[in-house]
Amino acid sequence: MAQDDFYKTLGVARDATPDEIKRAYRKLARKYHPDVNAGTEAAARFQAIGNAYDVLRDPEKRAAYDKFGPEWESLQHQQEQQQNRWSGGYGFAPEDMSRADAGIFEDFFDAFGQDTFGRRASTRPAAQHARIDINLEDVFKGARKTLELRMPDVDAQGRVEWRDQQIAVDIPKGIVAGQHLRLKGMGSQGADLILEVALKSHPTFRVDGRDISVTLPVTPWEAALGAKVAMPTPGGKVQITVPPNARSGQRLRLKGRGLPGPKPGDLYAELQIINPPVKTAEARAFYERMAKELNFDPRKDQGGSR
Q: How far apart are CA 234 and CA 267, in angstroms?
């Protein structure tokens, strides 16, 4: 980015309103466009005008430029790495670079009475993105969340300032990570706000799409003899049957007990055999008797020996 003063490049005051900035850009764009002015100096001036307008037309970029000056991009990036501008871990960015860059061309063609496609340019601001982190339980039951956002805004005098805003968001039952929620007109300057759903890690459950996995500890006798045991699910505890001679790592499926949706996912219980610790002489004697009486070698198929 050039080190020029963008306000001087467009010939406007630092407190210029968005309309004043747009009018200045249109006037200069007509004057220095290569189709009108073929000089080498004019081409460089036309590029500088476009660079300046690209920043000052955008409230967020303008706020960063006013705060950091010509090095606004690198300094803003450093600040964002150190501290998220959205409380609660939310991120915020233009929807995509192609749409953001397209706005400057729409304004330029509008200066000549038409937009890029020969129609009048749209003034609707580009949608903006944020992220919302939800709990696994929110997916099962649905929830209402409150986002605390800090967004750039332009006051009646055209000054860019940051404002804090709280937005209530309804989380629909069955939504999964990666899906989006569009909040119309809730972004900066009335833009749509698109929330990307992210699922917080859970201490008990692992999520893969709509399927859920959980490690289920069982005793050696439950695994050997079979048993009905209680296991946790996001919707509460349920009874599951452990078949006789079950092995550690074996997966048991509860069909349709995963994340809800048009096609509910499955819930998988991965068995983990836990041996009772030897803390007493009686426990040691019991293990010694079991080793003698069962005469079992789990490594015999690998060529192992006692």
A: 10
SS3 content of the chain, % helix, strand, coil (to 5): 35, 25, 40
Q: Are residues 62 and 192 in the same domain?
A: yes
Instruction: Please give the Cα distance from 162 to 47 (Å, whole number).
Output: 29
Say if 186 falls within a structural domain. Answer: yes
Q: What's the number of domains the chain is made of?
A: 2
> Distances from the Cα of 75 to the Cαs of 66, 69, 154, 282, in angstroms?
12, 9, 22, 68
Task: Name the DSSP letter for residue 234.
Answer: T
- What is the secondary structure of 9-71 as a DSSP string? HHT--TT--HHHHHHHHHHHHHHH-TTT---HHHHHHHHHHHHHHHHHTSHHHHHHHHHHGGG
Ranges of residues in the chain whose predicted pLDDT is under 50: 1-2, 80-121
Q: Which residues pair with 272 in a beta bridge?
A: 217
- pTM for the model stands at 0.55
Note whether 98 and 138 are same-domain residues.
Answer: yes
Considering the domain architecture, whether residues 242 and 189 belong to the same structural domain is answered as no
| Domain with 168 in it | 58-199
